Amino acid sequence: MEIYASSNPVNYFALIVAAVSGTAVFIAYVFLLGGWAYRDAETRGKSGWLVSLVVLFGAFPLGLILWILFRPPTKPSDKSKSFNLESFRIQ
Length: 91
Known about the structure:
The structure is a single chain. The protein is an all-alpha fold. Helix content is 65%, strand content 0%. The protein has helices at 9-43, 48-57, 62-70, 78-82. Helix 1 runs antiparallel to helix 2 and helix 2 crosses helix 3 (62-70). It starts with 8 loop residues before the first helix and ends in a 9-residue tail after the last helix. The mean pLDDT is 82.
C-alpha cells in the first residue's frame, strides 16, 4: 500500500502546482498584511517593524485582531498643521 501520490506524472504536476500556489499565497500574505501593518504603525507613531512582526507571527489572526483593537489614534499630519490660508494670499 502506497501512502504518497502514485508515479502518475499528473499527480506530481498537481503537487508542484499546489506547492507553488501555496508559496505565492504566503508571500502575498507577508507583503500585503505586513506592509499594511508597518505603514499603519508608522502613521500612528509606533515601531513599524515590531508591529508588523507581531501581526504576521502572532498566531494569525490573533496578532492582527489585537493590533486593530489596541492601536493608538493617528497622529495629525504635518501638512494639516502647516496649512494656512494666509500664506497663499496675494500681496
